[in-house]
Amino acid sequence: MNFSIEIKNLKKKFRDFEAVGGITFNVEKGEVFGLLGPNGAGKTTTIRMITTLMPPTSGEIFVAGYDAKKYGATIRKYIGYVPQALSADSTLTGYENLLFVAKLLRLNKKEREERIDYILNMLNLKDAENRLIKEYSGGMIRRLEIGQAIIHRPEVLILDEPTVGLDPVARLNVWKVLETLRKETGLTILITTHYMEEAEAICGRIAIMNSGKIVAMGTPEELKLKTGNPDATLEDVFTFFTGNQLESGGSYRETSQLRKRIQRFS
Amino acid sequence: MKQVNYAKESKDSVKTKSPLKIILDYIFNSFTIAEMEVRKLRHDPTELLTRAVQPVLWLLIFGQAFSRIRAIPTGNVNYQTFMAPGILAQSMMFISIFYGLSIIWDKDQGILQKLIAMPVPRAAFVTGKAFGAGIRAISQVIIILFLSYLLGLNIKWSLLNIIMSIFTIILGAAFFSSLSMALAAIVKSRERFMGIGQVITMPLFFASNAIYPIQIMPHWLQIIAKINPLSYVVELLRGYLINGSISGTGFDWLILILATVVIQVISAVLYPHIVT
C-alpha cells in the first residue's frame, strides 16, 4: 500500500450545517498534497478529522493504513500536526518546547538530545534555543512548531495554514524547511492553504475545496490545462472551478482571530 | 538522516499495548507536564509575589480586626492563629479555582489541539496540570508560614507537621484545579469561566471552617460546610499547624483523595471536548 492517507466519502455535519460534504482523496507516500480553498471551505474540519481530534459523521479515514474509527491512538503516532493557531508555548524556551514534546513521546534521553539537536540545527534555531518563545519572530515560531511535530519521525506531517500572517521572507523559510524535510526524510506532507502561490510553490498535487466539496484535483499544471487557458494562474483556476473569487475574508470570529494572530506574529 | 517509519513495526504490536505500558506512559507524561509548569514559573516568578498580597491582607487586616471582637470560639489559641491555616487553604483555593483558565488559554493558543493530537494518554494532561497547580501552591505555604512567624502566631513549628501541611496543600490544589479544569472544559470561553469562577469561590470560602468553626454556623450551612472539600483541607492544616496532631487524620485524607480522584476522572473525560 502506498498511500499515507486515504479518505473515502468523508462527511461532517454540525447540526444542520454540512461542513464537509462527502470528499474522497488519497495522499501518496512522500507526496506534498495541498487542500486549497477559502475560509469556511471545510479544510480545517477535514484536518481535524484526519488528526482524530473530531469524529466524522460518516465516511472512512485511513492514515498509514490504520482505520481512524478503530485506531485513533495509533494514528496519532504516525502523524505530526501543526495547527493553525500558534501552538508553541510562549512562556517556555525553544529548547524546552522541543523537550516537552520529546518527553511526552517518551523518547529516551540520548535519542531526545540527538533529535532536538538535529532539529534545532536543521531549522536554524540553535542560536535561539534558550530564548523564550515570546521573543521569537513569527517565522521562527512556525519553524519550531514544525520541529515539534516531527520529533517522533512521523510518517505524515499535517499543517493547517502554516504561513498565515507571515511576511514573505518568513514564508519562504517555512517552505524551504518543508522541502528539506521531504527530501531528507521522505515525509508525506498534507497542507491546507488559501494562498495560491503557496500551493504552487510546494504542492505536488492539490485539491480545490469549496463549500465542503472537492471541486477539482490534480497537479497545478493539470488544473491549469483544464481551464483551457495555458496562461492561467492558479487564481484563474480557482475562479474557473468554483465560480468565485478566492477571497480570504471570513466570519467575524475568523477575522478577529486572524488579526490577533497577525499581531502576535509581528 | 533517514526516515524511520513506525509503519514498519508489526501492525499487531500496537493493538496489544500492555496495561503496564499505558500506566507508565500516564505517570511519566503527568510528570513531564508538571515539570513544564514548574519551568514556566521559573521563567516568570512574579506571579508568586502578586499571589502573596491577598492572604497577607486577610491575615493582617481582617485577622487583626476580628481578634478584637473575641466573639468566635477558637479554642486555646488567638483568632489570628486560628485563621492562619484557613487563609492558607483559602489562598490555595483561589489560585487553583482559576487554574482552568490556563487550559482555555492553551486551547485559544492552539497548544491543546496539538497535544491532544499526540499519542499521549489524555488523562495525563489533567493529572499533570493538577500536580503543577499543587507545586505552585507550595509557595503559599511558605508565605503564610513566614508571615505567621513574623506575627508571632502560635504555630507548631515541627518539620514533620510542615511537610504534612505541604502534602495537604498539594492535594487540595489538585482537587480545586481539577474542578476548575472540568468547568473550563464545559464553558470553553474565558469570559464565562471568569464569571463562574467568581461565583463559586466566595460560597466555597464562606461555607467552610476557614475563618470560623463549623459549630457556630446555622444548621443548613453546617451541612454544606461538611460536604465542602475546603473544610477538610482546613481541618487537616489546623490539625498539623495548631494542634500538632498527625494521628486521626485518616478520614479527612480519605475524603480528599476520593474527591480528587472522582473530579480527575470527570475532567479527564471532559477535557478533550474543549477543542471541539
Automatic annotation (TrEMBL), chain A:
GO terms for MF: ATP binding; ATP hydrolysis activity
Keyword RNA-binding annotated: no
Membrane topology summary: Multi-pass membrane protein
Chief location category: membrane
Boundaries of every ABC transporter domain copy: 5-236
Listed GO CC annotations: membrane
UniProt keywords, alphabetically: ATP-binding, Membrane, Nucleotide-binding, Transmembrane, Transmembrane helix, Transport
InterPro entries attached to this UniProt entry: AAA+_ATPase, ABC_transporter-like_ATP-bd, ABC_transporter-like_CS, P-loop_NTPase
Location within or outside the cell: Membrane
Highest taxon of source: Bacteria
SUPFAM superfamilies per record: P-loop containing nucleoside triphosphate hydrolases
Protein name: ABC-type multidrug transport system, ATPase component
Source organism: Thermoanaerobacterium thermosaccharolyticum M0795
Automatic annotation (TrEMBL), chain B:
Domain ABC transmembrane type-2: 46-274
Main location: membrane
Coiled-coil blocks: none
PROSITE patterns documented for this protein: ABC_TM2
Keywords: Cell membrane, Membrane, Transmembrane, Transmembrane helix, Transport
UniProt xrefs under InterPro entries: ABC2_TM, ABC2_TM_bact-type, ABC_2_transport, Nod_factor_ABC_transporter
Chain ranges passing through the membrane: 48-67, 87-105, 126-150, 162-186, 193-214, 253-274
Protein's membrane topology: Multi-pass membrane protein
Cellular location(s): Cell membrane; Membrane
PANTHER family per the UniProt record, alphabetical: NODULATION PROTEIN J
Family listed: Belongs to the ABC-2 integral membrane protein family.
Name of the featured protein: Transport permease protein
Annotated organism of origin: Thermoanaerobacterium butyriciformans
